[in-house]
Amino acid sequence: MSDALHELDATDLAARLRRRELSAREVVQAHLDRIEQVNPAVNAVVTLDPEGALVAAAQADERLARGAEVPPLHGLPIAFKDTHLTRGMRTTFGSPLFADYVPAEDDLVVDRLQRAGVIRLGKTNVPEFAAGSHTFNPVFGTTRNPYDTSRSAGGSSGGAAAALAAGLQPLADGSDMGGSLRNPASFCNVVGLRPTPGRVPPHPGGNIWDTLAVPGPMGRTVSDTALLLSAMAGPDPRCPFSLETPGAAFRVPLDRELRGLRVAWSPDLGGHAPADPDVLAVLEPQLSVLEALGCHVETACPDLAGADEAFRTLRAHSFDLTLGVLLDADREALRPSLARNIEQGRRLTPADLITATTVRSRLHLGAVDFFSRYDLLLAPVSQVTPFDAELEYPTEVAGRPTETYLDWMRSAYLISLLGLPALSVPAGFTPGGLPVGLQFIGAPRADLAVLQAGHAYETATRHGRRRPDLPTT
Predict the structure, then answer these.
(1) How many structural domains are present in the chain?
(2) Amidase domain spans which residues (predicted)?
(3) Active-site residue, 2 included
(4) Does residue 186 lie within any of the structural domains?
(5) Cis before residue 204, ω within 30 degrees of 0?
(6) Is the pTM above the cut of 0.90?
(7) Domain range spanning residue 452?
(8) In whole angstroms, what is the distance from residue 9 CA to residue 217 CA?
(9) Is 81 a catalytic residue?
(10) pLDDT value at position 2?
(11) Nearest to 229 by CA among 245, 240, 208, 241
């Protein structure tokens, strides 16, 4: 049985562990073996502590053997995103400046997951300072797509998504400013949720008022993703916008009748995010699945006028606040495109920031009104399919040349600006075998409803059950 443990869903593994049908040591060792066999092909896990993981697994087994109550994620192994601080284990942010940095504390999300019972394996790869949706950096190199290792795994949680798809871990943490949970989930045929800001409080953080970037969960199924969210979510007084709903509210069955649901479909987000034809060729037939589930589907989109400039302005300002000191210390140590983003933030005027904030406020209120008429918005997760891993970013989208590494990410980051929960669910494959995700977007704070809709769609299609065929060493 141990040879197939890496293929089991996290919810199944958790149940078997609690029933003592499996030991945490067996589960951890099976995933360590899988990492040894296939990680060289994908480069998803970049720091590994097998000895520490096995010791922690043995301690978890001993607690259960004593009859002690164990937490909901008891014995499940996970490698944390390499932008999340891990006490006593290096956190590089994908930057040579932090290649040997070992934090003295855990990020709140890391602490919560370990308290929920996960076993720390190591760290997953990221782009430099999580900037961009293609995972490569000068410290560890490029993470490759398990379905085609010549292609990108997406980012910035690309190592996490590739590790999930390749069976290196059953759950994965991540974060999302402009699509960093959703894009890699789409590229790697797994599930990624960008929660409502405040659902998973970010701490520590350079700007505690920043609601653009949020931590969130990934899984191979929607149920697994909800399980991980249940351990991540909940209020924290250090986050001024954290939501009061406890995480346990998401540790519930997701089955829900979708009949009568009012669903809007926007293939290009009102003309603001045109997608490549091969993306739409996969997604448009999926609308019939929602209709067969009883949903009323029509084409519609909330107002997004000015969203692109507002997002880029607020993102650049955030980069200047958090990374500007590094630019001053050693500009040459930063990726040129990242340095330009920080410099863009420095050129912003108070009027620029006021305009961006005003636009964001208007668009959020417009989205609230939109969701009084619709229960759900569907859109592409990514405007492109997984691209050549040797590129920094795609050279064109929908026939138009790209000028920056952000240009192909609008279908994700325009939704980030509105503060809405958004879920990437596997939606099928191109004729060439590349995964494509469908984005389920809900009203503010409607995270559970989004998960329920995604679960119903996933159950009806089972696209996520297709696993990559990877070489083993």
Answers:
(1) 1
(2) 26-451
(3) no
(4) yes
(5) yes
(6) yes
(7) 2-465
(8) 14
(9) yes
(10) 44
(11) 245
Strand locations in 210-323 (E): 214-219, 262-265, 296-299
Asked whether 180 and 203 are in contact (CB, 8 A), the reply is: no
How open is the CA angle 433-434-440, to the nearest 5 degrees? 125
Q: Transcribe 86-134 into DSSP letters.
A: BTTB---TT-GGGTT---SS--HHHHHHHHTTPEEEEEE--SGGG-SSS
pLDDT value at residue 115: 98
Backbone angles phi, psi at 64, to 5 degrees: -65, -40
Q: Are 413 and 406 in contact (CB under 8 A)?
A: yes
> Amino acid identity of 38?
V
321 lies in a domain?
yes
CA distance 178 to 132: 8
CA distances from 39 to 5, 128, 284, 376 (A): 16, 20, 34, 37
Is residue 471 domain-resident?
A: no
pLDDT of residue 1: 40
Q: From the candidates 81, 230, 242, 416, which is the catalytic residue?
A: 81
Contact 286, 409 (CB under 8 A): no
Cβ-contact 173, 113 below 8 angstroms: yes
Distances (CA, A) of 38 to 31, 33, 169, 243, 396: 10, 9, 12, 39, 32
- C-alpha–C-alpha distance, residues 420 and 368, integer Å: 10
Catalytic: which of 156, 242, 266, 318?
A: 156
Residue-level pLDDT at 3: 53
CA distance 386 to 42: 14
Joined tokens for residue 433: 């075998």
For residue 81, is it within any domain? Answer: yes
As averages over each run of 10 residues, the pLDDT of the chain (473 residues) reads: 81 97 98 98 98 98 95 98 98 98 97 98 98 97 98 98 98 98 98 98 86 97 98 96 97 97 98 98 98 98 98 97 95 95 97 98 98 98 98 96 96 98 98 98 98 98 97 85
Q: Per the residue annotation, which of 133, 152, 157, 180 is the catalytic one?
A: 180
User: Is 157 part of the annotated catalytic residue set?
Assistant: no
Total length of the chain: 473
DSSP tag of 333: G
Tell me the two tokens of residue 298: 């029509």
Measured CA to CA, the distance from residue 420 to residue 418 in angstroms comes to: 6
R_g over Cα of the chain: 21
State both tokens at 312.
Answer: 């880029």
